[in-house]
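Lecture 7, part B: from sequences to assemblies.

Below are the input chains for today's worked example.
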Amino acid sequence: MGNTAQLKISSELADKIRAHGAQTYPHECCGALLGRDTEVADRRVYREIHGLHPLVNRRDDSPNNRFSVTSQDVLDAENAARQQGLEVVGWYHSHPDHPARPSQYDRDHAWPWYSYIIVSVANRIPEEMTSWRLADDRTEFESEEIGLQRVAS
Amino acid sequence: MSVKVIIPTPLRVYAGKADSTEVSAKTVGEALGQLTVKFGDLRKHLFTEDGKLRSFVNVYVNDEDIRYLSKENTPTKDGDTISIIPSIAGGFV
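Predicted structure of the full complex, as structure tokens:
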């Protein structure tokens, strides 16, 4: 599934994710990706992100290397998406002073199908942004290509 | 006892794209068991290898979190709705 998927996001929304990561540094930021999937030929799916639903990191005990959101946060994000004719297609979070690579902890807590965007933030400066999907058998995250789209001004 | 189970978006691909299904069960545990009999590929995403419900899988009967009821032994009655709500977590290291 993952290797047939692409994620498209505007550079404006990508910048908002980076800014959120810088804002909460040295703590992890998190939020929902609101968008939709479009099936095209050969069962390929294009996933487009059309909005964000920033959330509060609930991990008060270890916010610099963990994030979590509650099931109510998830329901709120789903409602926000529904109101815009979208659905929650994934989640983003930051890795302060660490690479934008999913950890074992990320994989252990991941759901399939969702896109997981990770932005690395080094000394409050956002750096690399990557996206990942959990393999169907849960053994690994598969890298998902991010297609940045310029928004006409 | 017919119980409706709401399938969360990320798992619908393993359930024939259905957003809900009806199962026959007297407890939440039975309902989830029936669900994974119906859709075998759901099992590894809901349960650990030793058969325990994964910690980031939240289950509600109507609007009640089963952690505050009798967990998987929570009884269900005809017409109840079971919702599976994801918890989202992660982080480095």
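Note for the exam: Helices of chain A lie at 11-24, 71-83, 104-108. Keep this in mind when comparing with the next example.
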